[in-house]
């Protein structure tokens, strides 16, 4: 790969916690002597009972992953209590509301009180250690309080992104058998309200029909909008927290006790409940947060994600708070009131580190440089990118226009499953190449394999696996360990397979090329094509559907749907709208189809398997390179698909 190399800026090198020599030495030790490395770095969190065992993991057979297993600790204690003496009056959370004139600071002491009160409410209403609590909230501090309150009493949280539909929320409530739900009357984003309580009401009804009765729907008053009320089940957040004590002991948890479940999409079936446990996850999120962002005492750090995604779990809540950082929580969107919002917020709170997604960077780049250049941004020191490949143009814009060439960019590759950052530059150590996530973090052993599983050495392009366990790794799919084994450890036995394609260049730098399975990445949000297909075929007019991703200038990938209609059904604009609404109802706005094409027939092999490769090429408008179509049962369908393609260049 010949790519422009950006050497580490002298300033970044001077102040960095880790320079290149340290990186190389620590990395070497972390893979040669993982026991020793993690025995030492496992001390970065506080343990109630110190661990004596460090690592006990196998990727073969039944797949069992255990870290620090005989230690006991508590995630909320590590995020709050242990900081009280030294930084009780320091800001733990700076809340930046949807409207630019609304901001609030929550100190570590205030955070302690809020979390304790909410934990006591949960206990008073019957939540016990191991119970699952569903959190369906806007991006307000109370969402973080709810997560930490669960952690404090040993309940397992399942945060569901506020953009998901009642159907999707219900599915997650049922899978987790969760009878306590936290929500708000309405969310507010970009000046628009989202009817969270009304959605939660519908979800509770659906869950009830599927056998799970929600006993408490705790509702935060965010807007004061009208909501329906079910006596006995529905209670107001603030009414309840006022009734209870402001102190609540942190439960002693075993390192391997579950901390949370987070549902994420895969190639097949319904979203899976990714399960993370306590000790290893806390060590992993805190160490990565500190070194990847070169976090120093007193820095103001902003991850502009939503707590509904893993990025919000690991890098708004757990990692930064474990490190005693000040973490910014942003309720709004980067383009409201206008495209200057992020940079004005940086100036307002004197933010030093910003972590966001390429889709936001591309959208802001499209709006024009004046939105950036009219702000100072002199406080900025490190910029981060996450969620999808960042194209070199967007990288250069972020670097030169936003960072004025001063700020290293950390392009961080990881997944819901990995718990935290895996492949990434370190600001004071890594020379950067735009578009490359560069090198593995401590303890991460990437490997590229070909389709048959042969290991590729040196410069190569293949499928990205990780050969040994790291502390932040998911432990199982909630309620379905077989699915965990099948999904991640069966394609290449004995290895964790990420589902991503990847290239390694002559310098040993990694370049993620995107998913190689039936998962698409829309604006950094992960979507299973199978989920969208099942929503489409649930419509009575549709007999068959196939969904693929295609390149989209802002979203990264767009959603392209091929549908075959039931005999006698005619295509119409009205039907198109119905199908779009159907997908939004079943999943949520993030799954809104960009293109729908009616296909009298889909390209299938003689054994009936849909050849998605062909559908992808047509969606990309790249039908000149369809490859071998001779194995199709009816090669004629391809001509019809091309003639009616929706994405002409
Ligand atoms: C998928 C995981 C990482 C937390 C947020 C998304 C893609 C993620 C990068 C990156 C290229 C990336 C991968 C991965 N991805 N980061 N820096 N460069 N691709 O978590 O929803 O679990 O999605 O996001 O395809 O598999 P997720």
UniProtKB/TrEMBL annotation:
GO (cellular component) term, any one: cytosol
Cofactors named for this entry: Mg(2+)
Binding, Mg(2+): 537, 539, 542
Binding site for CoA: 189-192, 311, 523, 584
GO molecular function: acetate-CoA ligase activity; AMP binding; ATP binding; metal ion binding
Keyword Acetylation on entry: yes
One example of a Gene Ontology biological process annotation: acetyl-CoA biosynthetic process from acetate
Residues noted as binding ATP in the record, renumbered to the chain: 387-389, 411-416, 500, 515, 526
NCBIfam families assigned to the protein according to its UniProt record, in alphabetical order: Ac_CoA_lig_AcsA, PRK00174.1
Domain Acetyl-coenzyme A synthetase N-terminal residues, every copy: 23-79
Reaction(s) catalysed by this chain's protein: acetate + ATP + CoA = acetyl-CoA + AMP + diphosphate
UniProt protein name: Acetyl-coenzyme A synthetase
Modifications after synthesis and translation: Acetylated. Deacetylation by the SIR2-homolog deacetylase activates the enzyme.
Domain of life: Bacteria
Residue ranges annotated for the AMP-dependent synthetase/ligase domain, each copy included: 81-468
Keyword Metal-binding attached: yes
Gene source species: Pararhizobium mangrovi
Annotated ranges, domain AMP-binding enzyme C-terminal: 531-609
Entry's family note: Belongs to the ATP-dependent AMP-binding enzyme family.
Described function: Catalyzes the conversion of acetate into acetyl-CoA (AcCoA), an essential intermediate at the junction of anabolic and catabolic pathways. AcsA undergoes a two-step reaction. In the first half reaction, AcsA combines acetate with ATP to form acetyl-adenylate (AcAMP) intermediate. In the second half reaction, it can then transfer the acetyl group from AcAMP to the sulfhydryl group of CoA, forming the product AcCoA.
Keyword annotations of the record: Acetylation, ATP-binding, Ligase, Magnesium, Metal-binding, Nucleotide-binding
EC number(s) stated in the UniProt entry for this protein: 6.2.1.1
């Amino acid at each position: 790969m010949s790519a422009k190399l950006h050497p580490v800026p002298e300033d970044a090198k001077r102040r960095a916690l880790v320079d290149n020599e340290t990186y190389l030495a620590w990395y070497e030790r972390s893979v040669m002597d993982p026991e020793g490395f993690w025995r030492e770095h496992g001390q970065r969190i506080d343990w109630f009972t110190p661990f004596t065992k460090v690592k006990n993991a196998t990727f073969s057979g039944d797949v069992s992953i255990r870290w620090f297993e005989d230690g006991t600790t508590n995630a909320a204690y590590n995020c709050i209590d242990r900081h009280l003496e030294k930084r009780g009056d320091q800001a733990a959370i700076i809340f930046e509301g949807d409207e630019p004139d609304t901001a609030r600071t929550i100190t570590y002491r205030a955070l302690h009180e809020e979390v304790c009160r909410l934990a006591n409410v949960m206990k008073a209403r019957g939540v016990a250690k191991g119970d699952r609590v569903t959190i369906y909230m806007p991006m307000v501090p109370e969402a973080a309080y709810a997560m930490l309150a669960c952690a404090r009493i040993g309940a397992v949280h399942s945060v569901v992104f506020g953009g998901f539909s009642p159907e999707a929320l219900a599915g997650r409530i049922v899978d987790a058998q969760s009878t306590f739900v936290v929500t708000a009357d309405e969310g507010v984003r970009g000046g628009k309200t989202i009817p969270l309580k009304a959605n939660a009401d519908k979800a509770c009804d659906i869950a009830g029909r599927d056998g799970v009765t929600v006993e408490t729907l705790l509702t935060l008053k965010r807007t004061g909008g009208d909501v329906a009320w079910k006596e006995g089940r529905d209670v107001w957040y603030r009414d309840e927290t006022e009734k209870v004590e402001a102190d609540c002991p942190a439960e002693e948890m075993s390192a391997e006790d579950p901390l949370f479940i987070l549902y994420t999409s895969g190639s097949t079936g319904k979203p899976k409940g990714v399960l993370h446990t306590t000790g290893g996850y806390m060590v992993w999120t805190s160490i990565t947060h500190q070194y990847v962002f070169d976090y120093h005492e007193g820095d103001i750090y902003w991850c502009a994600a939503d707590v509904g995604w893993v990025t919000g779990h690991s890098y708004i809540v757990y990692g930064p708070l474990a490190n005693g950082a000040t973490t910014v929580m942003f309720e709004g969107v980067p383009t409201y009131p206008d495209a200057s919002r992020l940079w004005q917020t940086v100036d307002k709170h004197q933010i030093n580190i910003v972590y966001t997604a390429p889709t936001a960077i591309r959208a802001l780049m499209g709006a024009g440089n004046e939105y950036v250049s009219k702000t100072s941004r002199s406080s900025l020191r490190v910029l981060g990118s996450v969620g999808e490949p960042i194209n070199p143009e967007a990288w250069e814009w972020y670097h030169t226009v936003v960072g004025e060439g001063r700020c290293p960019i950390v392009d961080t590759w990881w997944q819901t499953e990995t718990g935290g950052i895996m492949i990434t530059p370190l600001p004071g150590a890594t020379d950067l190449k735009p578009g490359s996530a560069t090198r593995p973090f401590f303890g991460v052993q990437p490997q590229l394999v070909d389709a048959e599983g042969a290991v590729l050495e040196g410069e190569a392009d293949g499928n990205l696996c990780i050969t040994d366990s790291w502390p932040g790794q998911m432990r199982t799919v909630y309620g379905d360990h077989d699915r965990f084994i099948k999904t991640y450890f069966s394609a290449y036995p004995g290895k964790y397979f990420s589902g991503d394609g990847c290239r390694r260049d002559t310098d040993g730098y990694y370049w993620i090329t995107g998913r190689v399975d039936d998962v698409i990445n829309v604006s950094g949000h992960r979507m299973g094509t199978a989920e969208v297909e099942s929503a489409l075929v649930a419509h009575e007019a549709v007999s068959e559907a196939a969904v693929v991703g295609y390149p989209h200038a802002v979203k990264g990938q767009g959603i392209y749907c091929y549908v075959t209609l039931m005999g006698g059904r005619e295509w119409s604009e009205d039907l198109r709208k119905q199908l779009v609404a159907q997908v939004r109802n079943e999943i949520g706005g993030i799954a809104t189809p960009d293109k729908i094409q009616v296909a009298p027939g889909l390209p299938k092999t003689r054994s009936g398997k849909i050849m998605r490769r062909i559908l992808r090429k047509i969606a990309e408008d790249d039908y000149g390179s369809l490859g071998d179509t001779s194995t199709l049962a009816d090669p004629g369908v391809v001509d019809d698909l091309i003639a009616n393609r929706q994405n002409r260049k």
